[in-house]
Amino acid sequence: MTKRQLADSIRIKKTSNGVNTFTPFAHYEVDNGTTVKYYTFNGLRVAMRRGSTLYYLHGDHLGSTALTTTGSGVGTSQTYCAYGKTRSGTTCASGNSLATDRQFTGQKYDVTGLHYYAARYYDDHIGQFVSPDSMVPDASNLISWNRFAYAADNPLNFFDPTGHCEKSIGDDDYGCFDLAQKIHRQFPNVDRESLERSSIKYLEKTYEELLTDPPLDAPIAGVIVGVGVSADASFLGPVGFAFNGGIEVLAHKNGELALYSYGGGGGTVGLGANAKVYVGRVYRLSDADGYAAWFESTDVTASYGPLGATAGRFSDPTIEDGTYGNFVGYAPGVNASASQSVMYYTQPLVKYDFQSNTVTYPQLEDTVNDFDYLIGR
After folding, report:
1. Tally of domains within the chain
2. In the predicted model, what is the mean pLDDT of the chain?
């Protein structure tokens, strides 16, 4: 079997016995020419369409697929032994009787007999990973020093969503790999590889220190160019509501170019309306996908006819010392206002990656996936 992977250990192509499987997205793949789509609800995988057949997926407490049913009610069940083998009575053996290869804890079961856990492969015959972890999840826990161990050797209560560290269903606390990614998103100048090789105790301490004393040398993550419109309407003297909307292009330092739409509103002191063309800088943003979020924006605009200017600052209100940026631009119209708004940036309308020379349409793909699920196609 051969494979091709992208960054973050995401496998996009598998070839086994001459059969190719392409998985460009987590919810979509082409298996030997057959299109397979997965549908999720509230983070859980609930249905799969293989070709023209729709299957409903039912899981257990660890997220394993335990039952698949069709629209006619015909179902196939499968239960598991502690470390992932298929259970048949009192016998445990490797295999698959379901219509999906997403099996034990929701991970892919390959024809090799190994389970694909993104960062590495897991062997249910020995109950361990076939390669060592790149990090020690918890240096104070003796079992963490066995870097081949699966789910802290407690597979009845824990699972391993990334191939790096154990986690329990419903646990809102950050696992080691989740926390490493969170730190890198908020503080991109902190080396990612060293974070992913650190223990959970070290990561927790590092995160606390960074929040208490964030680095002052936040590097520029990208530049933005945008066009939009603003309207400020007063209701109580000079105080009123502000409305904003437009499109924006982000050029990220990692070689991504993405187009977004945005809109929102808030409070204002002033009155008027204007168009705007602006440029700006973005800081502490790990990649273009992270720009699809809520931002709090503060701006000042003064315009009269063809003369006008606007300037402001925006930041992520959900994360302390997270992504932020500033902008300045030309704003023709009739307006004199200072406003504070909450803006929502959609998934990119289109994104181009210079490194891989690929074009994707994230917002369209999400819309099509949601529509397919709603109409059961």
Report:
1. 3
2. 83
The 8-class DSSP code of residue 321 comes to T
Asked if 207 and 224 sit in the same domain, the reply is no
Tell me, yes or no, whether 204 and 227 share the same domain: no
Query: Does residue 329 surpass a pLDDT of 60?
Result: yes
CA 115 – CA 254 distance, rounded (Å): 31
Do residues 162 and 153 touch, judged by C-beta distance below 8 A? no
Q: Are residues 243 and 343 in the same domain?
A: yes
Q: Tens of pLDDT along 242-265?
A: 899 999 999 998 889 999 999 999
- Where in the sequence is the domain holding 332, given as residue range(s)? 220-353
Integer Rg of the chain from CA: 25
Coil, strand or helix at 185: helix
SS3 83: coil
- Asked whether residue 25 is assigned to any structural domain, the reply reads yes
Q: Are 284 and 187 in contact (CB under 8 A)?
A: yes
Which residue's structure tokens are 């490493």? 180
* Digit-coded pLDDT (tens) for 44-71: 889 999 999 999 999 998 889 999 999 8
Phi, psi values for residue 308, rounded to 5°: 175, 160
Indicate whether 265 belongs to any domain.
Answer: yes
